[in-house]
Predict the structure of 3-phosphoglycerate dehydrogenase.
Amino acid sequence: KPGTELKGKTLGIHAFGHVGKRVARIAKGFGMKLFAFDPFIPDDEISKEGVTPLKSVEELYEKCQYVSLHIPANEKTIKSINFALMSRMPQNAVLVNTARKEIINEDDLLKMFAEREDFKYISDIAPDCAAEIAEKYAGRYFFTPKKMGAQTAEANINAGLAAARQIVNFFEKGDRTFQVNK
């Protein structure tokens, strides 16, 4: 079955931090129409990146054929990507999760697969229900075997350097910017 071009397609970026901004830059190269929702980033900061800010997460899912997730996993976001949001996506929707698997409500993901034959899901970590998805919904998903977020030699070096800089800044300046044991 032939694929589809990204040019002219709509991409919704759910959270517009460092990774979301990089995704936007890459997507521009494919000629995609870009939208973002992030309640913590001012609209003008999103706009200056050539991305249209949206006022609600619901609008993002309604407007975009592709939605790329970049939200953290915390008490407010765990299982927040649910059927109510996913079902708002237009025909031939693709949900891309390179955030955390915990943000997906997996029961609702299975319901979405069952009710929408056009829906596809891509993730850099397999959900707990991966075997059921593989058995029932062939060709509509892609998972990597493990979380790939920082699995490069460069990422490990950069993380070590950042930690060393933080230790030096703490002793030299009392900087507690990334303190985790408050």
Summary: The first helix runs from residue 18 to 29. The CA atoms of residues 96 and 122 lie 5 Å apart.
